[in-house]
Amino acid sequence: MEIEKEHIYITPTEFENLNDAPFSGDEENGVSEERKTEINGNWIPATSITEAKINAKAKRRLRKNSSRDSGRGDSVSENGETLKIGVVPTSPKGKLLDRRSRSGKGRGLPKKGGAGGKGVWGTPGQVYDVEEVDIKDPNYDDDQENCVYETVVLPLDERAFEKTLTPIIQEYFEHGDTNEVSEMLKNLNLGEMKYSVPVLAVSLALEGKASHREMTSKLISDLCGTVVSKTDVEKSFDRLLKELPELVLDSPRAPQLVGQFIARAVGDGILSSTYIDGYKGTVDCVQARAALDRATVLLSMSKGGKRIDSVWGAGGGQQSVKHLVKEIDMLLKEYLLSGDVLEAERCLQELEVPHFHHELVYEAIVLVLESTGEKTFKMILDLLKTLWKSSVITVDQMKRGYERVYCEIPDINLDVPHSYSVLERFVEECFQAGIISKPLRDLCPSRGRKRFVSEGDGGRLKLESY
User: Fewer beta carbons under 10 A from the terminal one: N or C of the chain?
Assistant: First the structure.
């Protein structure tokens, strides 16, 4: 039996698409003649189709490799073989080092003309215009252009209020600028806690010095009308009177001090003059009654509610030198009358002038030189010894006071003839008590006794240096 050969027919156009593989030499010419015969006959055997597919696939692979490896130092020989120069592009290392486009497109220029990449805001020198609102934008809102944005600050609660304002007031005690405190408080949303500002300031001042209380009175006066109102001030003093039993535990003098704050507020005009009258007969608390009585006495002494500037006194460097000298002179005279060393020490500390303590040393020694009895001598010695041991008077201030006396002893001797001998004795006692050092004792001036050379020298005096 004869088996008929199966034939697959294909059009000439399909055959051209399949026949892409190149051939060289006589083999290529022979195949071309055979194909022409097959094309003219309009039929192709199955073996020829398989060969065409293989050739087309090889051709596509060759084209793909040639486009990818172009410009990488590769060259093609005359026989069609590719010569590799440098790193093999198809290797993993070659792919990592290659920064060209994988698609083979582009000229190797930076993306977006150098305006792209991380942290880049555009090309150098580019100026952005204000973006105009597009009215045709579906998200456009007519009220968008008239909208005003403001920062909303939440009101402070009681815990956050004390935590925020305490450092502000303590810092104010250092610089004393009420305008700075006012600006800082305006930036805060105090809400209903405005009346607590004077309460916190007074509570902190009760534990401080007299100068702090004076600064607190000025602060409340300056804040009234800008940060707090007169109603808030009255409300704050009402709360202080109610909290006096608790304030007394930390500050035993709280009733008297609060009374002075009330009197000063009335004198400054930030508290009504009828404020105290509203409490008559309605106060059961002993401390509150003592505070109101103190305020009433101070107002009666100020002649009809006149501004009370000296209720706290002028503390520290705000006092004049003449005033400080007068205060120290009165302090020494009261001490000589009472003999209370602790009271004298407390009064000296309340002056808040540690840089001026040399004046007390100077005045005390002058009192010893001008006195005629031993009582003043011993009392002044005990006072200086106590102030030295308690470190109220420093080494520098003690030394400066003695040096002032040493410099002025010639003038003092004109009024007090025996001042040299009294000074030598007092300085020696102070050295024995440990108040002064030996170099300071040796600086004490001494005046020698006038002696004649001899009775036969005609009364000539022997020259001696003092």
Answer: N
Length of the chain: 466
pLDDT at 31: 43
Report how far residue 41's alpha carbon sits from residue 313's, in angstroms, rounded to the nearest whole number.
131
d(C-alpha 196, C-alpha 157), whole Å: 11
Q: Rounded to whole angstroms, how far apart are CA atoms 206 and 258?
A: 8
Measured CA to CA, the distance from residue 61 to residue 64 in angstroms comes to 5
Q: Among 126-140, 177-191, 346-360, which is the least confidently predicted range? A: 126-140
| Ordered DSSP codes for 14-39 | HHHHH------HHHHHHHHHHHHHHH
The CB density around residue 164, as the number of other CB atoms within 10 Å, is 14
Q: How many CB atoms lie within 10 A of CB 359?
A: 20
Determine contact, residues 56/18, Cβ cutoff 8 Å: yes
- Maximum CA pair distance of the chain? 188
- What is the rounded radius of gyration, in angstroms, for the C-alpha atoms of the chain? 53
Give the number of other Cβ atoms within 10 Å of residue 129's Cβ: 5
Q: Could you count the other beta carbons within 10 Å of the beta carbon of residue 235? A: 17
- Can you read off the two tokens belonging to residue 451? 């002696």
Each residue's pLDDT tens digit, 163-178: 999 999 999 998 889 9
Instruction: Please state the pTM of the whole predicted model.
Output: 0.50
